[in-house]
Amino acid sequence: MRYSFAAVSYHDVFFTAKSLSCVSMCIRCECSDNSGMREYIRTAVCIMAGAVLAAAAPAEEKRVSITYSGDRSYTLIERTDIRRYDSGRYTGLLSRETRAFISPEHSSGGGSSYSGNFFVLEQTKSGGKKTAKGIDAVVPVSFTIDESGVMTVSSDSQYPEYRSFPSFPDKPVQEGDSWTGKAERCVDPRGTGQFTRIPILIEYRYVGEEEYKGERVYHIKAKWATRYGNVVGGSYDPAGDPDLSRAMGTHDADIMVRKETGETIVIRDMLDETFVYSDGQTVAFKGSALFFTEFPPAINRGAIMPALQKIATIKETKGESKPEGMGISDAAGESAPGGYTDAGERETAPGGFTDRKSLESALAADSGGQSSDKPKNDIVVEETDAGLRLSVQNIRFQPDSDQILPQERGRLDDIARVLKMAGNAQFLIEGHTAAVGKPSGEQQLSVERARAIARELAARGIDAERMMCTGYGGTRPIGDNSTNEGRAQNRRVEITILENK
User: Fold this and answer.
1) pLDDT for 354
2) Rounded distance, CA 191 to CA 406, Å?
3) In whole angstroms, what is the distance from residue 368 CA to residue 439 CA?
4) pTM to 2 decimals?
5) Is 255 helix (H, G, I), strand (E, B) or coil?
6) Of 229, 409, 412, 430, which has the highest C-beta tally within 10 A?
7) Would you say 436 and 474 are in contact if contact means Cβ atoms under 8 Å apart?
């Protein structure tokens, strides 16, 4: 007996997604006298068709709640590689980097509070030589972030550049769902120091859960338009740059946030925007900005402190915070330590203390038991809000030069050995001079000497890109410039092991 089936297609089977039951099937059997076999075939085909269609039917999407609950220190790095056009003329490919070291203050029902410093690094050409970074500015910040990602900046600062970005939906989402969020961006296209705040409305779309560098993350896409001034939908900042007439452009970003906490891991922003000024000049940018966050562990104090005690005097009390979060004053240039004055005078007195009483107290507390005023190896170590700081005295240079004398090799070897124990930490190298000559000359010489110290440390195995150099010339004295001892105190280099606490 031979059986055959009529052509069976999806149109021949009617079912519901919930029951996945077959409603009807048309089967033809050449032998009409075998009703039992006909029923068996009908049932078998119905089951097979139902199984095929059930497998093809989409499963119910998993919904996730994305919220912010971060409460730990982090390092934020922003790198931009953009093509700049001034009034339509291409003026070059520019690279800018900003590093922020942020620590939590406290967490409450109102969100997580943070404070720290943004280090704005010197602008460089793309593909530049790997060297220690110079610092254009240091900007102190404080802010809170609530569970939806909304940021409230309590410090009057142009950083962070983006506020409330990303922000999260107020209900669970599944793949493909979208939401909108308000944010704010601070811009200074001409680099004049006059920042303008531009409100932005961002459209987000949830892509799904993924793995990124060993972390489970939520992948989110975002896009928005720049609209400012006399354009449709434009806003206006009364405290912004009065010469900025309008701005327009587009942004498309990919965002990865940590699944457990909503902390941003990485943002890649592709931008194309133009700023128009009242004099008719335009500044346009095309390219990308990359933001990524790292969560480095604290340095191993148990190992590093004994090593420091062998080469330096440890100041037991916590050092005072630097004015305005270590910011550079308007008159300050970069500087580095000067072992000699412009006339070739060698420094002989220790520094790092505001008066002799505090110096004597610190020396008495030092485990080395020194009784003189001179710190061990002319190095004093103290705690600061930014991390452990080594204040190094009397580094000897050739007069009016950045050439370090051979006598310093041993001390630099000791310092490099300790810095290597700080893991992947980054280092801030700050130079100070006595005010004994022309400020511009002191600043230029100190720039060269700061970089000389970084080069010496790099030659001893410290990654050059982990060092940032800045300085203050004679603008931050800790001693009296009218005396030899005071001037000697003012000539110093400070190396801070930047630490997320």
Assistant:
1) 38
2) 41
3) 38
4) 0.72
5) strand
6) 430
7) yes
